Hints:
Blueprint (H helix, E strand, L loop, with lengths): L1 H67 L3 E5 L2 E3 L2 E5 L2 E7 L8 E2 L15 E6 L3 E6 L7 E7 L1
Parallel strand pairs: 1-4, 3-8
Antiparallel strand pairs: 1-2, 4-6, 5-7, 7-8
Copper (II) ion (CU) binds next to loops.
Amino acid sequence: MPSNREDGDRSRRGPSRRGPIRRGPSRRGRPRRGVLRVAALLGAVLLVAVGAACGSSGHSSSTATSRVAANEVVIKNFAFVPQTITVKAGTTVTWVNEDPVAHSIVADHDTFPSSSILNHGDKYSHVFNTAGTFPYICGVHPFTTGTVVVTS
Ligand SMILES: [Cu+2]
C-alpha cells in the first residue's frame, strides 16, 4: 500500500516537472520551426537558382566548346565528322562517339594506337607528333573510314 502512494507521488511529480519544461521548448519551438521552414524554403530556392545557373552555364559552355573544338572528330550516323581532319604536329585529336552504337578507332597499318570500344559518349584521344597522313577505320564497322592529316 505505501508503495502505491510513493508511486502516485512520483507520477504526480513527474508531469508537474515536465509540464513547465515542455512549455518552454514548445513556445520557443514554434518560432524556431517557422524560422527553419523559411530557411528550408530559402535553401531550396537558392539550390534551384544555383542549379539552374550552373546547368544553363554549363550547358551553354559545353555546347560552345563542342562547336569550337577544332581537334575533335565526332562519330555520328556511322561516319567520322569531319572525315578528314587536318592538325599541326603535336596536336591532340579527340574522337567522341555520339552514336547509340559502339564504334572504335583503328589506324591502317597500326600507324597510331587503336582505341578501345567506344560506347555512346565515350572519348578517345591521341597526340599526333609526326607529320603525315593517317587513314583509319572503325574497328566495328570497317566501311566507316576517316583520315588524320598532320602538318609539320
Ligand atoms: Cu563503328
